[in-house]
Amino acid sequence: MNQTTQLPSWLTETDEYEPAVQKNHFVDRNIQTLQRILLTMQKTEEPKGFLAGTQAAVKLPFFCLMILWVSLSRSSAFLLIFSTLLLLILSVSPLKLIQQCLVPGLTAAALMFITLVPAWLLGYSQLLNPLILKSWMTVTLTVLLAATTPRDDLIAALKVFRMPDTFILVLDITINYIVMLSRCALAMFYAIRLRTVGRSKTFHHSFSGIGGTLFIKSQMLSQGLLDAMYCRGFDGHYRRAEHIHFHMTDCLLVLTAIAVTICFFSI
Question: What's the number of domains the chain is made of?
Answer without folding.
Answer: 2
